[in-house]
Amino acid sequence: MFLMKRLGLPVISTQANKxxxxxxxxxxxxxxxxxxxVLAALAGALSGAGYTTLATPATVVPTAQAHLLSIPVVGAKxxxxxxxxxxxxxxxxxxxxxxxVVLGPGSTAAPSALGFARSVLAWADKTGKxxxxxxxALMASVPSxxxxxxxxxxxxxxxxxxxxYSRRRVLTPxxxxxxxxxxRTGTSTVEELANHQRAIVVxxxxxxxxxxxxxxxxxxxxxxxxxxxxxGDVLSGIIGSLLAQGMKAFEAAxxxxxxxxxxxxxxxxxxxxRSVMAEHLLEALPPVLRDALA
Length: 294
Known about the structure:
The protein is α/β, with parallel strands linked by helices. It is built from 12 helices and 11 strands. A hairpin with a 4-residue loop joins strand 9 and strand 10.
């Protein structure tokens, strides 16, 4: 039980049902990157969430359904294969309960997709739901427009409420995305960025840094085998699942990064460093989590 004791992984009650184990909503995918959100959703379910739902642009639904059997797929209004700006309200109509949201895997920087992401951000601020942002959705959290214009992007009686970020938010940038966030926010360190966004920042790389601006930890237990497309989507699903199961954001991020690193090492041992694919991390999650609780 080393990992559980060290990182406080949720204990599943003998009286649990699929709803009490946490409901995770994954919002992602596009015709350009249809599989990214599928990877995140599968990782969320494999990491323990009792009910995982994938919402993806309508044109991507057939691809997603071909890979997901036990995970429901909700089709959203789309604009040229990306989320439509007004699609989120339709998604909410099809869901009864949400404990945490993963936003961004496989998304694009199309104006409609950014508008969609901003509507999700406003909803998360209003409801206080834990939210993980990945990929192009990260840029929606730091719009370049002046603060005085934020009310046009985020319907609210108080424009500042759109950025009343809590420490329930997790940002997972890779090096290129981190550089863009630094430029957009005028920050230069991950700690400064975390404080600017009032969020947990998971700066992915050979050494992954997790910080809330006050406390910072680094994980160097990964492997170069993880340096391949799709592995970050798996990480987003893992952390999102832990958020849905009730872990606090910093602890969920730290635990998720370590689980992801261990899954990478497990997959490398089985398949070799060069051949590890994101799908192999999904295969590795059950034994890694089983061993964490042994």
